[in-house]
Write a structure and sequence with these properties.
By secondary structure, this protein is an alpha/beta fold. The chain has 14 helices and 17 strands.
């Protein structure tokens, strides 16, 4: 007997030619070049057919993707059961559209090609589940807007993978920022002291799924991967909107103003490049990025200052080659309210583990504020069992049980489950599409502004990319 969910899924996909049963979604992976394409398949999903068709050009990208999927299938604990059907050749995109082997296309790879892939796939009537970023330049932004228009006409869904919404500290920060008894109202801030500041530090060489990550050489070509703000910055801009303007529909033309942006490189030696990619030499497309010392300049550091409905925000995305022992990627954030500031820190004092704090500036005594904060946290704990609060010097730390720290890789499964629910309902929340467009306007406009004038030192010399507080 068909369930209500299965019936709504069938209705949502009725515009597509399909031979699948009504309660079955069939995934296609298009030209996988980023490890995120595999992480979407780290888990099995009840409504997704285990046969996944992969359409891609022949080469190392698709080979690495298949190796990662095989790793999930052969692991000792909860192995997956994916069966990959691979279709390679120069005409892979045309074949995918013609053969219609699935109804949901996962896109995670070379970002220079991604916007065009998205548009053509939607135009053919497929749903698209896309890794970020969906556009990396101002030239790609109009095509992305057209893609959303096309999705609406074709009655299919385009959704990007915003894993940071599922990080527990980001969730609890959102809860506290929207608790007026504690936080008050969001400050407007200024360009010099924004109401929201965020900084994310990442590293090129790391482990994924317990193994050293081999990156494709083009990952370090920002013309293909995207620069700092159009790439990682997509997550940060999304968090500002999602946390501080929850379920508010934003108009990119009226509500968003981008004020300033910068870019600067991280240098990478030939030895580091080989360690990360397995390549003995730089491909020819890097010629203009190689300095006099033979090091590669990768423009994966940047920041942008903008305002949303008059509220000033600033985010920075920074990259190093490899984290020092005992450390890893870090995140810093502060949101300033009229009664309190809510802060995420992940530095030496926190043993490089993410921690969430609330700082009183309401004028109330410490005892009064403590009582108010504990009442708010008790309400949050009704949803997130075990969440508590303790005094931490002049501030208060939110105690988060370890069970909620599931890790970045697990968040891909959570986003996929969210997208599957949207497919089942045949729609997304009304604010999602306008806010995706607003987000990509900020990131691509940041690219334009950072290239409008000479930034920092010449490309031949690296600038400091250490975390800024």
């Amino acid at each position: 007997m068909k369930t209500k969910l299965a019936l709504t899924t069938a209705i949502a996909l009725s515009a597509m030619t399909t031979t699948a049963t009504d309660n079955e979604l069939r995934w296609i992976t298009l030209d996988p070049g980023h490890f995120h394409a595999a992480l979407v398949q780290k888990f099995m999903y009840p409504r997704v057919n285990p046969v996944v068709h992969v359409y891609a050009p022949e080469g190392p990208d698709v080979a690495l993707h298949l190796k990662r999927i095989e790793g999930f299938n052969s692991r000792a604990e909860k192995p997956t059961k994916w069966r990959e059907k691979v279709h390679t050749g120069k005409d892979f995109l045309e074949r995918m559209i013609k053969e219609r082997a699935g109804n949901v296309v996962v896109i995670s790879g070379n970002n220079r090609k991604k916007t065009d892939y998205i548009y053509k796939t939607l135009d053919a009537g497929f749903n698209v589940f896309s890794d970020k970023p969906m556009a990396i330049t101002p030239q790609a932004f109009p095509l992305l807007r057209k893609a959303f228009e096309r999705a609406a006409r074709k009655k299919v869904l385009l959704y990007d993978i915003m894993t940071e919404r599922y990080e527990i500290t980001s969730i609890l920060l959102r809860e506290l920022v929207n608790a007026p008894t504690v936080f008050g109202t969001l400050e407007k801030g200024t360009a010099e002291k924004p109401a929201v500041e965020m900084e994310s530090v990442h590293y090129f060489f790391k482990e994924v799924a317990g193994k050293p990550l081999t990156r494709p050489p083009w990952f370090y070509d920002t013309r293909q991967q995207g620069e700092a703000i159009p790439d990682v910055g997509t997550h940060l801009v999304d968090l500002v909107q999602w946390q501080c303007f929850p379920e508010v529909t934003l108009d990119w033309r009226k509500d968003i103003k981008v004020h300033a942006a910068r870019r600067w490189p991280t240098t990478m030696t030939p030895a580091q490049f080989k360690l990360s990619t397995g390549c003995d030499k730089y491909p020819d497309y890097f010629k203009k990025d190689i300095g006099p010392d033979g090091a590669l300049n990768v423009f994966q550091n940047g920041d942008v200052t903008w305002s949303i409905k008059g509220v000033h925000a600033k985010v920075a995305a920074l990259w190093g080659f490899q984290a020092p022992p005992g450390t890893g990627d870090t995140h810093y954030q502060i949101v300033r309210g009229s009664k309190a500031d809510v802060v995420i820190r992940q530095g030496k004092e926190q043993n490089y583990k993410v921690a969430l704090y609330v700082e009183n500036k309401s004028g109330a005594s410490a005892d009064e504020f403590d009582k108010t904060l504990r009442a708010a946290v008790a309400r949050i704990a009704a949803k997130w069992s075990g969440v508590d609060v303790k005094k931490a010097g002049a501030a208060w730390e939110i105690i988060i049980p370890d069970k909620y720290h599931v890790g970045h890789e697990a968040h891909f499964g959570q986003v996929a489950e969210k997208y599957l629910r949207c497919l089942g309902e045949g729609k997304m929340s009304a604010w999602e599409v306008p806010n995706m467009i607003a987000k990509y306007f900020v990131t691509t406009e940041a690219f334009r502004l950072s290239h409008a004038k000479k930034q920092g030192r010449d490309a031949g010399g690296a600038m400091d990319n250490s975390p800024r507080r």
